[in-house]
Amino acid sequence: MDKAATAPSADAARLDRWLWHTRFFKTRGLASAAVKGGHVTVNGERAKPARGVRPGDWLEIVKAQQRWRVEVLAIPPRRGPAREASACYREDPQSQVRREAQLEQLRLDRQLAPGTAGRPDPRTRRRLRELKQG
Length: 134
Prior knowledge:
Strand content: 15-25%
CATH class of the largest domain: Alpha Beta
Largest sheet: 5 strands, antiparallel
Helix content: 40-55%
Strand order of the largest sheet: 3-2-5-6-7
């Protein structure tokens, strides 16, 4: 791939900066680390943090065991409010359904886990381990 295809231009932004501006990551450093770690792909290809992202590109983002598949709609001029940020992308409906189902499953798992008042004793730890493995 040549440098002209990957370098950001006026109608594009760096991938790490776009992820930070659209509030997928709290800092640009975290966004850059996620891209370097292979947790973000652009149009199905692994990318570097400086890769240019343009409207129409599809991103797959994995963060905290959740997977987003979003289409880039706009390049935000700044890291503004969440409403501004969410207007810059559109999540794939299948991705949204899958992510919400996963969140619901996590909520149910938390409710089924035995509660402890403070630090668990050895017996409770065993029960927690058995629930995790089973």
